């Protein structure tokens, strides 16, 4: 309410009006007291129906539309969203503002499946442990921050050989152009001796060139960063020299699984390799654009064959 006393004109909340009035020294104070004329009290905007909200805001909406057309190319949504963000930040509600901003930019407030996969691998969570965490977080927060397991499996496929189509130029001799991978007997081709444990295996074997292409595709960002660091950002023709270490494995000593020792019953086996470094011929010298800092970590192992014995 605006105070009607001469030379005051202050705006006061309804509940504090009588206290404010008592601070003025004057005759006939009751003449100035606020009279509620009855009728329905004005409801809060958010409690109204959508139709009533539109009705109450129609004048403001018209002004916002006029401003948007004049200043923002008619983008009313952007103007309203920005007003909302500013209102939230003015009240220090930054968390809500950040989430809203993420949704506006199409990121959503959840984590990307590839990020969830990285979290699961780096924290050594099994699928069931991850699923339990996913369900708990969803139930407690009411939001899907972590992605479900099927989304992680889809993201994982991009890390497996055979996912990226490629061609060698010039084409490799005696190598099929088909990048499909198959299920095979993992011990096929290994010479068996009398003392070997009789074992059945099922394995998913990848072609070496398909596995190498997948590894390099996976490392695309590091390679481009390395080129940029050596001021070679336009130099993408090669030739690149890729040094690979074989039989790197996070599942124990691989030498036992290459036929020199007995095949272990009920054992998951992974034949893999690690890209140690990548260099590029530039003029008369060779410039190293990538080097694996933790070559013994299972996190940089690239699969060649995944086998259950």
TrEMBL record:
A Gene Ontology biological process term: B cell differentiation
Location(s) in or outside the cell: Nucleus
Pfam families (UniProt xref): RAG1, RAG1_DNA-bd, RAG1_pre-RNase_H, RAG1_RNase_H, zf-RAG1
Manner of cofactor binding, per the entry note: Binds 1 divalent metal cation per subunit. Mg(2+) or Mn(2+).
Keyword hit for Ion transport: no
UniProt cross-references to SUPFAM superfamilies, sorted A to Z: beta-beta-alpha zinc fingers (SSF57667)
Keywords, comma-separated and alphabetical: Chromatin regulator, DNA recombination, DNA-binding, Endonuclease, Hydrolase, Metal-binding, Multifunctional enzyme, Nuclease, Nucleus, Transferase, Ubl conjugation pathway, Zinc, Zinc-finger
GO MF entry, a single one: sequence-specific DNA binding
Top-level taxon: Eukaryota
Cited function: Catalytic component of the RAG complex, a multiprotein complex that mediates the DNA cleavage phase during V(D)J recombination. V(D)J recombination assembles a diverse repertoire of immunoglobulin and T-cell receptor genes in developing B and T-lymphocytes through rearrangement of different V (variable), in some cases D (diversity), and J (joining) gene segments. In the RAG complex, RAG1 mediates the DNA-binding to the conserved recombination signal sequences (RSS) and catalyzes the DNA cleavage activities by introducing a double-strand break between the RSS and the adjacent coding segment.
PANTHER family for this protein: V(D)J RECOMBINATION-ACTIVATING PROTEIN 1, VDJ RECOMBINATION ACTIVATING PROTEIN 1 RAG1
Protein name as catalogued: V(D)J recombination-activating protein 1
Organismal lineage: Eukaryota, Metazoa, Chordata, Craniata, Vertebrata
Gene: RAG-1
């Amino acid at each position: 309410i605006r105070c009607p006393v001469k030379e005051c004109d202050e705006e006061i909340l309804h509940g504090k009006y009588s206290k404010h009035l008592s601070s003025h020294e004057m005759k006939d104070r009751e003449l100035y007291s606020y009279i509620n004329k009855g009728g329905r009290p004005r409801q809060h905007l958010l409690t109204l129906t959508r139709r009533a909200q539109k009705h109450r805001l129609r004048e403001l909406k018209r002004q916002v539309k006029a401003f948007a057309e004049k200043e923002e190319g008619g983008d009313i949504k952007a103007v309203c969203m920005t007003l909302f963000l500013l209102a939230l930040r003015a009240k220090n509600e930054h968390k809500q503002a950040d989430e809203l901003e993420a949704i506006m930019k199409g990121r959503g407030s959840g984590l990307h499946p590839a990020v969830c996969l990285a979290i699961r691998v780096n924290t050594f969570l099994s699928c069931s442990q991850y699923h339990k965490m996913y369900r708990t977080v969803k139930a407690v927060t009411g939001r899907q921050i972590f992605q479900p397991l099927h989304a992680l499996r889809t993201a994982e496929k991009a890390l497996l050989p055979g996912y990226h189509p490629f061609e060698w130029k010039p084409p490799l001799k005696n190598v099929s152009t088909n990048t499909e991978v198959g299920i095979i007997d993992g011990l096929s081709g290994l010479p068996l001796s009398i003392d070997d444990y009789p074992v059945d295996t099922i394995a998913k074997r990848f072609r070496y060139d398909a596995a190498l292409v997948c590894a390099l595709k996976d490392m695309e960002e590091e390679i481009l960063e390395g080129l940029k660091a050596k001021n070679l950002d336009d130099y993408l023709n090669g030739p690149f020299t890729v040094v690979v270490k074989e039989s790197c494995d996070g599942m124990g000593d691989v030498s036992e699984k290459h036929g020199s020792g007995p095949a272990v019953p009920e054992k998951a086996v992974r034949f893999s390799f690690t890209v140690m470094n990548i260099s590029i011929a530039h003029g008369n010298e060779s410039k190293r654009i990538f080097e694996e800092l933790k070559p013994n970590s299972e996190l940089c192992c690239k699969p060649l064959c995944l086998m259950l014995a």
